[in-house]
Amino acid sequence: MSKTILVVDDDPHIREVVTFALEKAGMGFVEASNGQEGLAEFNRQKPDMIILDINMPEMDGLDVCKEVRKTSDVPILFLSSRDDEIDRILGLELGADDYLTKPFSPRELVARVKAILKRSYPSSEKQADTSEVSTAGLLVIEPEKHRVYWDKKEVFLTATEFSILHGMIQHPERVFDRDQIMSMAYDMNINVSDRTIDSHIRHMRQKFLDVSCDNIIQTVHGVGYKLTP
After folding, report:
1. DSSP 161
2. Contact assessment for residue 88 and residue 41, using Cβ atoms and an 8 Å cutoff
3. Where along the chain do its domains lie?
4. From first to last of its 229 residues, what are the pLDDT tens digits of the chain?
5. How many angstroms separate the Cα of 225 from the Cα of each of 30, 93, 146, 158, 189?
6. What is the signed CA dihedral for 157, 14, 56, 58, rounded to 10 degrees?
7. In sequence order, which residues have a C-beta less than 8 Å from that of residue 179 and are 6 or more positions away?
8. CA–CA separation, 45 vs 33, rounded Å?
9. What is the CA angle 113-158-60, rounded to 5?
């Protein structure tokens, strides 16, 4: 997997751990020691993915994510030194694809990175298998182009959000519990909290609300979620 990952963290030890794990997995990397440097490297290198620390001086990871999202949907994995649900949910609300809390296992980090890259840059074989356009009401999904439209207006989803929506549209009348949605979003036996799944759904709803769709995903209390295009 010849992808370049931008690693932004003010802790040199963390950068060393991350870059060593990426290099061992056959991935290229670019380093940045703070948020401003990270933005500069992002604009210069155009990486395939960003691993982004939240708590940094001068410009934190959340502000970096906001700036990146103004021009790019490049996948972002947040790192946080605080075991704080607020940081996690806020990061996902800003358009991140995933998060890890420090300390983390390098093996877990690589697994998450590979899962995100697989969703964001599917192989030609996978594209051939999933290239058919899916529609439900005013909702249109073009898997090969990674595009989503509501009433002909494009909705910009992260790779994780796209995977969830694409899975749900295959069975538009089905109610999915959080474990099933987790399997759509994280296809490498990775466990995340229910709060994270809820955050993805909430973020997707807001994006559709921005194009005048106010009920794309319905909550079925005590069970999970249902696509309601």
Report:
1. H
2. no
3. 4-120, 124-227
4. 479 999 999 999 999 999 999 999 999 999 999 999 999 999 999 999 999 999 998 899 999 999 999 889 899 999 988 766 667 767 777 878 888 888 899 999 999 999 889 888 876 444 444 558 899 989 999 988 889 999 999 999 888 899 899 999 988 789 999 888 988 877 655 667 777 888 889 989 999 999 999 989 999 998 999 999 8
5. 39, 18, 22, 19, 21
6. -110
7. none
8. 15
9. 70
pTM of the model: 0.71
Closest to 155 (Cα-Cα) out of 65, 112, 164, 44 = 164
The residues, any chain, with a CB within 8 Å of residue 36's CB and separated by 6 or more, are: 58, 59
Q: Residue 6 corresponds to which tokens in the numbers above?
A: 């931008």
**Both structure tokens of 45:** 């290198």
Question: Per CATH, which fold does 4-120 belong to?
Answer: Rossmann fold (3.40.50)
Architecture of the domain delimited by 124-227:
Orthogonal Bundle (1.10)
